[in-house]
Amino acid sequence: MAREPCEKSARVAGIGLTMPFFSHPDSSSTWSAHGGPTHSGGKGNGGGPQPPRRTLPSGRTSPTQQIQLVLALSELGAGGEEVGRAAAAARTGKSMDTVSDCMGFLVEVGLAEPGRGRYALTDQGRAFAEAWPRDSAQARLLLHPLMQAHWSATVVSQHLAGGPLPQEDLARVLRTGLRGMPMRGVYLVEWLVIGLVVERDDRLHIHLPGQAPPRPGPRTAPRAEEPGPGPKTEAEDPDPAFLLGLTLREIQELPDARYVAFLEGVLQTLRGALAPAA
To answer: pLDDT for 83-101, tens place per residue?
Structure first.
């Protein structure tokens, strides 16, 4: 069982209006890299538009566990009521600080409504939560337009236009200029994979959908033999957990050569995540 990484807390007072009150202060900052508009544009006190925010997922827990928070909010708020932070923490087994840290990104992508210690899902978030346990492939299709509208989709489309990039390199690009845990960039790539904005091969290279993957190694299996992300029945896997975009079953079914390459890619990703941001 993976332990939750710890982050130092920071005071939000005096930081400015670009910081969501429910999010860890390291999760967003004023726009400072390539990209386009984001959900969080607005008007400041002077009436003019504020610079868009860049929000990263929590680095305290994996995207799969963040999705479990969405499911918990759906279950606890089944009658349309808001869910308190303590109740969400108790249901997911996470700390209240971790719940708060997760909510900034979930709100930014449109899965949850903003709230001060009390949370509710949007219509899109509820539809995603209802679909995920029974058909993760359908849930990913529902997530796709939300992730496509996130600022990171514009950034990855620009950086991947010339061809695929190793996952750790793309993660480093996404967190450029942002403070906080390096895993935030890795987890954002994971969200983009789950949301079908990008695709990842067995060598952990990220490419745009329809884009030719990098040149395969001498024993790379044909695409037709690769386990696909097709719909899973409830009997097969009602709540699949993803490791770098693959379920446990898909990892177990990898041929020996590809399994070794997968493990090497995991190590490369961890080394890239722990490297200091540029």
So the answer is: 999 999 999 999 999 999 9
Angle at 185 between CA 35 and CA 54, to 5 degrees: 40
Which amino acid is located at 121 in the chain? L
Q: Report whether 53 contacts 17 (CB < 8 A).
A: no
Which of the residue ranges 10-19, 60-69, 199-208, 252-261 would you say has the lowest mean pLDDT?
10-19
pLDDT of residue 44: 42
DSSP secondary structure string for all residues of 37-91: --TT--B-TTSSBPPPEEE---SSS-HHHHHHHHHHHHHHTTTS--EEHHHHHHH
Q: Is the separation of the CB atoms in 10 and 129 below 8 Å?
A: no
What does the pLDDT read at residue 275? 56
CA 83 → CA 92, 110, 116, distances in Å?
Answer: 13, 17, 11
- Confirm whether pTM is higher than 0.85: no
| Residues near 242 by beta carbon (within 8 Å), at least 6 away in sequence | 63, 64, 190, 194
**Residue that the structure tokens 């890795």 belong to:** 186
- CB contact at 8 A, 202 and 262: yes
Q: Is 230 helix (H, G, I), strand (E, B) or coil?
A: coil
Residues in the chain, total: 278
Within 13 Å of residue 7, how many CA atoms lie on the same side as its CB? Answer: 25
What angle is formed at CA 60 by the lines to CA 59 and CA 61, rounded to 5 degrees?
A: 95
Whole-angstrom distance, CA of residue 176 vs CA of residue 122: 29
* Single-letter amino acid, residue 74: S
Give Cβ neighbours of residue 4 (< 8 Å, ≥ 6 apart).
60, 61, 94, 95, 98
